[in-house]
Amino acid sequence: MPALRKYGFLFSFVLLSLAFLPLNLYVLAYFAFIPLFFTPGSPKKRAFLYYLTGVFFFSSRLYWILFLQVEPRVKPFLAVGFALMVLYLALYFGAFGFLFGIIEKSRTPTGLKLLLLPSLWVLLEYIRNHGATGFPWSPLWMSQLGDLRISQTASLLGPYYLSWLTLLVNWGIFLSIRYRRAVYALIPLLFVFVSEIYGVLTLRKPTEQAEKIRVALFQPNVLPREYYDPEEWRETENAFQELNRELKDSVDLIVLSESALPGFYRFSKRAQELIGEIIDIHGAPVLLGTSDRERAGKEYLFYNSALLIDTSRRIASKYDKTHLVPFGEWLPYEDRLPFLRNIDLGQGNYTPGREISPLVVKKAKFGVLICFESIFPEISRAFCRRGAGFLVNITSDGWYGRTLGPVEHFHLARFRAIEEGRYLVRAAKTGISAVVDDKGRIVKSLGLFERGLLTAEIPLLQRETFYARYGHFFPQVIMLIVVILLFIMWVRKVRKNQEEVSR
């Protein structure tokens, strides 16, 4: 126990790391915070130790950023950006530690404490995942993807319920040990049991009968280059010609990755001819990711886009990425503060898209998530609310090599399928490409740095999950609960002070 009290933050870091990918020993997440809870100290000391845990945790989760292939002059900015991101994200751990220190020492009834602390974690996680700089990477609910049964609750209450439940179990076990009352642990375990039963029943429920569309995914396994490279063109042409020959089935849509071809498709005859050959051979439209631009007055606006090329080789429709990578594709708020555009940190000069609107092929609507957009539940939900029958995620991911980054990126996208009750097809330039069903199960996949193609029949589902209909209902309720509980705590404190004065 002395070691636990002294080095609790290290024990918590290890348990949290094991609970997440690559091992994904999800059960350990239910115990990961207990060593931290046992660490004594004032709220300020706890804030520091929790912050330290966050620094270790996010360093281990985001190390792959340092492997990004960029020009040498940008490398120092990359290292600084990595450090600042880790230090920033760890602040939410620190804030939680400070609040824990206050609540744990307060004379608030234990039952209220049991409900309040997990709610505060969800509130903090919700805040860090939203806004122009929001980055929902390695949220606590991600650990529970290892248990596909309990993950099904995301279709009901959204992913934040899983974060709340995980913290509730940690807190309940701690309180039961501290006060030697098993009821504090039994209540959270009852939530786990009910959630598991819900998951079992959901997984057993067959997918609704619906019209289907046949989709092919090309994974060329060509490393992206920052600048024009003739060798990249040769590799790309060889890869697509090979995959083109391998595709024997009749399909309704061929999906290529983000940055599928070098340069701007709209202004490249070479790219247009290559895609045209694929269309002519298979008689199917092609969806591909590319940079695009349009004139706005005296200047050009650049977009990270998905273009749908129809069977007559015309651009039938497009979607422009609405949530850009902060400091990678743009500087946040540069659209509102023009002077930021003069700051060069090696970022791209893209403009966010204006609307989230599904694309259509053969009357089948689908939503396109470009790269990083797949980690935001709100974007997938917006597509499905507008009638998308399935989701498509196109990404490159080749910039990060064989690191944890591309792997976690893929598995985060699986939650979008669960939340929305939709099939998700994913085309990546170097992997991982996959077909994921409406329960988050991997139907087919191609690993990192493999060349190949996948074909599958994708049902056009229309049934709305509770989460799809009501969105982040759960964290909004949590916010209300936090306000009510804090008000109750304040009223109790005021009454106590009045009683002491009257004596």
Task: Describe the structure in your own words.
The protein has 503 residues and is of the alpha/beta class. It has 16 helices and 12 strands. The protein has a 6-stranded mixed beta sheet. Strand 6 (359-361) and strand 7 form a beta hairpin. Helix 6 packs across helix 16 (473-502) and helix 13 runs parallel beside helix 14 (404-420). The radius of gyration is 25 Å and the shape is elongated.
Provide keyphrases for this structure.
six-stranded mixed sheet, alpha/beta, 503 residues, 46% helix
In the sheet with the most strands, the strands line up as 5-4-3-2-1-12
The SS-based structural class is alpha/beta
The helix count comes to 16
Proportion of residues in extended strands? 15-25%
Low-confidence stretches: none
Gyration radius from CA atoms, angstroms = 25 Å
Distance between the termini: 41 Å
User: What's the story with the biggest beta sheet?
Assistant: 6 strands, mixed
Please provide the ordered H/E string of secondary-structure elements.
HHHHHHHHHHEHEHEEEEEHEHEEEEHH
**How many strand segments?**
12
